[in-house]
TrEMBL record:
<protein>
    <submittedName>
        <fullName>Pyridoxal phosphate-dependent decarboxylase family protein</fullName>
    </submittedName>
</protein>
<dbReference type="InterPro" id="IPR002129">
    <property type="entry name" value="PyrdxlP-dep_de-COase"/>
</dbReference>
<dbReference type="InterPro" id="IPR021115">
    <property type="entry name" value="Pyridoxal-P_BS"/>
</dbReference>
<comment type="similarity">
    <text>Belongs to the group II decarboxylase family.</text>
</comment>
<dbReference type="InterPro" id="IPR015424">
    <property type="entry name" value="PyrdxlP-dep_Trfase"/>
</dbReference>
<keyword id="KW-0663">Pyridoxal phosphate</keyword>
<feature type="compositionally biased region" description="Low complexity">
    <location>
        <begin position="165"/>
        <end position="174"/>
    </location>
</feature>
<dbReference type="InterPro" id="IPR010977">
    <property type="entry name" value="Aromatic_deC"/>
</dbReference>
<keyword id="KW-0456">Lyase</keyword>
<feature type="region of interest" description="Disordered">
    <location>
        <begin position="158"/>
        <end position="187"/>
    </location>
</feature>
<keyword id="KW-0210">Decarboxylase</keyword>
<dbReference type="Pfam" id="PF00282">
    <property type="entry name" value="Pyridoxal_deC"/>
</dbReference>
<dbReference type="InterPro" id="IPR015421">
    <property type="entry name" value="PyrdxlP-dep_Trfase_major"/>
</dbReference>
Amino acid sequence: MTTEWTAEELRATGYRAVDLVVEHLTRLPGGPVFQPVPPGVVQTFEAEGVPRAGAPVAAVLEEFATRVEPWPFGNGHPRFFGWVNPPPHPLGVFAELLAAAMNPSVAGGNHAAVHVERQVVRWFAELAGFPPDATGLLVSGGSAATLTALAVARHRATPAPAPAPDSVSAPVRPTTATRAGAVGGDHAGAGAGSGGTLYVGVEGHVSIRKAARLLGIGDANVRVVASDGADRMSARALRAAIREDLRAGRAPLAVVATAGTVNTGAVDDIDAIAGVCAEFGVWLHVDAAYGGPAVLLLDGHGEARAGIARADSVGLDPHKWLYAPVGAGLVLLRDPAAARAAFSLVPDYLRTDGDVDGVGGPVWFSEIGFDQTRPFRALKVWMLLKHLGLDGYRARIEHDLAVAARIAERVAAAPELELLAHGLSVVCFRVRADDDTNRRVLRAVQLGGTAFLSGTTVGAAFALRACVVNPRSSPADADTLVAAVRHAWREQTAA
Ligand SMILES: Cc1ncc(COP(=O)(O)O)c(C=O)c1O
């Protein structure tokens, strides 16, 4: 059994892997945007048992080259306009390699990865207009950011029991839910729940509801606030909903506003919503997972920026519009003490404060978030920010917005198409036909390999949805997408 790799072995494997990366990234634009994995290939994955004897490294890499690499998700392609999945910036790809080579656990401690992550959090806190002592951490994505933020909101709303005088173990706070006996069983998360009402917009991301279930808030305590007619949460409707709940004896827990809804790219009136939250002392979380970079970096979003600066927590995904490889989400938390109270189960006498220049380092990330062993997610974000700078990001995001505007223009100019919504870099439209026809058109485009977009619902109508988060997408690619939809529609009507 060989356990040590020589420098030559490391280099040979690294060079082959880099060749594979280069082949993948350079070949992508010339191939189909998407093609399903052929059934025969799927079968090989399903039939193969656990390897008993190992294979040489070169053989494993070749298997990757023949069985995995040829069937990607599609999001590296310039004509992939589905969901919110950009291609990775190449530097991000190599940052992943370097992070894996160091392979620290970024739970905490006084090692470089901790300080890189703290710097990244500080940079984003500054961009968001948060105070210098705000905290935060990188998480797997926007869903985890919302879950983390709402866990802190929920904990803050839960009064702590008085500790037993001679207790030496970490106090475990009962949640409002367990004390009230309303949740805790198998079905608790999805059911009644308790512990305050969560307010979400009609266009709020589904991950907010998932978080409500996981936290035991429960579906019944999620209140959907009406839109203002432009797919944005209405601050007036929010105020009315909170007032009504208070009159009925229901405690408001938190409001989740959105900066860039996934469906239509709408940006809520966040400053007005922050005003309502301040009026009633309710926690405001802003889900800026998708739109955060545009709102924070570009002109024209002063109102939303002002609201973000007043929020208690913000989620923003570097793996979306900052082109970092998956998974890189970020959550900012205004009140470091509240964050720590929610997640730190370390008794006070074991905390490592004051060991800033020793082994312990600053407050551990594992004390302000769920994970204990944590990957070095921050390196790719740090490297990309250093390489592109805010100016580089601004230019790329503006490019994406221009390509989206081009799609909208082309759609508006096509008599058989109807533009349904256009916000940030999202364009929703449909062919002037029933929902089933639109679904068939979508499938034909997706399987056709020329361009890729996803589907959604706008109002009551099924819609085709294009989202541009790829600086390699050109205006010509936008034209090709719209031409592919029109072609698929003609084929459908001819069939
Ligand atoms: C507005 C918004 N919030 C949250 C999410 C969930 O983020 P993730 O998929 O990274 O968990 C998404 C994903 O597209 C999103 O667009």
